[in-house]
Amino acid sequence: MKLRKQLVLLSLLSLSLPWAGCQYVKEVGSALQQGQLAALDATANAVAARLAAEPELFGRDRGRTNTPTLYAHTVEQPLIVDGYIDDWRSLKLPSQKFSAAMNSSSQFSASIRAAKFLDQLYVFIEVQTPHIDYHHPASDQLASGDHLLLSRGYADGSSIDYTLATSAPGSLLAHYRDVHGQAQREHHIEGVWHEQEHGYTVELQLPLAFSTYGFGLQIVSGNGNSNRHIGTHHSQHLAATLTYSLGPIEKALQVFEQPSLQLEVINPEHWSLARTGSPQADNTDINSAQPSWLTLQIYRLALAQSNETLPPSNLLGRVEGDDINLALMGSSNHRWYPSATGQIGRSSVAIIHDQQLLGVLIAEQSSEHLLKLTGNAFTRLMQYSFVTTVLVSLTLLFYASWLSWRIRRLGHAAAMAVSDDGQLVQRQDHWPSFGATDEIGELSRNYHELLQRLEGHTHYLKTLANKLSHELRTPLAVVRSSLDNLEHESLGDKACTFLLRARDGSERLSKLISAMSAASRVENSIQSAGREVFDLAALLRQLIAAYSDVYPQPLQLNIAPADYAFNGAPELLVQLLDKLSDNASDFCPPEGNIEYRLQRRGDNILLSVSNDGPLLPDKMREQLFDSLVSVRGNISSHNKNSASSPHMGLGLNIVRLIALFHGGRVQAQNRQDESGVIFCIELPVQRTK
């Protein structure tokens, strides 16, 4: 993996900064939530104690009953008593289902809606019955067919029943019997009866005061024997009260009203008696800075969420929940519920007076105000974390790029310091990161020092032949003079043989020293050679014509049509071709061929010399052009004179030096058909000056 990628991956660790910030905000949020719940509990207990001190706020009926209860919802405007359900549906008031006794027909049922406006009570009844019996006007009973019974209680515990019957669809009249048993009409109760497809509807309006000390409703199908009935009480017995929100309790709750706080009181049967406020935060303050929507969402995710869900609000006026059930048993508790705007904290406290359970006080408050308290701080935290993360990432990316660039420059300089054939290239004075004080600078200086030492050693090797030739001439002259003196002495036949061998060895050693001196002179002459523009193709034709009289093998010349104007040293190129031709002739058999090929490839001129004969050893291909390296000991030469003469491996080294002088390179490889060897020189076309 590249160094840049490694540092980029390491920069991802900067993401731990916003994570740590979120964890901190989470802890702070949890602490704030605990504090909010504690404050909510204190408020709930204070309100519950205040209500328990005034039990008369809950009215007369405070105990639990086993009979059905009708809940009246509060409406903002009076209803039109016309027997139609349109205005009830527009208010979206729910209905309560009531069914007949178990021993009666299952087809007899009713849906009842109730509402209150100021001091008036409205009731809408939908009765499902297979048959309607209307009251007979001639009957001496208050009702001889289908009818309604309303019961009203009084403060002294007594009650009175009202019978609502009609002889035909239309207005519904209410009658009762006085203390003398005489039928009397109740003008405060108004009603309208409408017949419909599977029964009938009744809409009533009566004073809300009728339900102050008890209220009962009974729907009777048939005659006065009431063999089929449904409702909230049984005949002549007041069993339940009409439940609705109580104004005195609402006024008492308004004293404790706070922003984003909802207080609600329910009776032991879970019916809502009063409600004030709203748990949602007040967003009307436009002057306060509000966190963004995205920040609020992230903050909500950062806070711990409860796994419990808030029970859905019951449109019938009932409030449910496990916490309320626990409160009804006398155990106060609180918990958080998730909501669309955050979380809802709810605290439920029982309202108890003289060991009598009056109801439950429910205090609800949204965590939205916590968002307002900490939202701006959280926004700044996220902004700082984001900016820090971006800056750290960009800094590490820039540093990784800069560090990688320095290392690449150093690597490129090290690679360019040595040519493909292992020779040191002329270096520039400036070495990458040479003056830096870090590890890369130290590595650069070590490279520089290493190349200097290598250059000195290479220079020593290059001048070794010249030094050896100079140092060996004096001892060689002593040896030769000694051999000359021995020739004048009387020696035996065997000694003469050894003398001839010694003289032959000294001659060969003298030739090697002369060759080494010549090679050194050639290398020096290469560096001082002058350049000129000439036609390389014409020069090659002249040389091949001269070589044809020298070498026994047939010579072939292939020149591709192109422009071969070349800026170089012609005498050096002649010497290069002489060395390659001698080498090719030495290893080419008498019946073999030597081929010269010249072609143009882009901005380069390719000159190749190919000969039949033995292949190059694989291990010697890279060292073939080095000084003092020869493969003649590994390959048999077909030229007897060449085989008998000493070879120091300097010819091909001179070829390489001449190619490098012209900015080119030389390669040796076997033919693809393995019939011989090819020496290829690639010369760049030099710009004329």
Could you name the key traits of this structure?
689 residues; Beta-Lactamase; Immunoglobulin-like; 4 domains; 13-stranded mixed β-sheet; 5-stranded antiparallel β-sheet; rod-shaped
Write up this protein.
By secondary structure, the protein is of the alpha+beta class. The chain is 37% helix and 24% strand. It is built from 14 helices and 25 strands. The chain has helices at 3-11, 16-52, 86-90, 247-254, 293-302, 322-328, 368-416, 439-462, 464-487, 493-527, 536-547, 570-587, 640-644, 651-661, and strands at residues 71-74, 96-99, 109-117, 120-128, 147-153, 159-165, 170-177, 183-185, 190-196, 199-207, 215-221, 228-231, 243-244, 261-266, 272-277, 333-339, 342-353, 356-366, 532-535, 555-559, 565-568, 594-601, 604-612, 665-670, 676-684. The strands form 4 sheets. Strands 1, 2, 3, 4, 5, 6, 7, 8, 9, 10, 11, 12 and 13 form a 13-stranded mixed beta sheet that branches.
**What global shape is seen?**
rod-shaped
Share of residues in helices: 25-40%
Largest sheet: 13 strands, mixed
Q: What is the average of the pLDDT values?
A: 78
Structural class: alpha+beta
Which spans have pLDDT < 50 for at least 5 consecutive residues?
223-227, 233-240, 284-288, 640-644
CATH architectural type of the largest domain: 2-Layer Sandwich
Residue fraction in strands: 15-25%
CATH class of the largest domain: Alpha Beta
Give the CATH topology of the largest domain.
Answer: Beta-Lactamase
> How many extended strands?
25
Number of spatially distinct domains: 4
Q: Write out the CATH superfamily name of the largest domain.
A: PAS domain
Determine the N-to-C terminus distance: 47 Å
Alpha-carbon Rg, integer = 59 Å
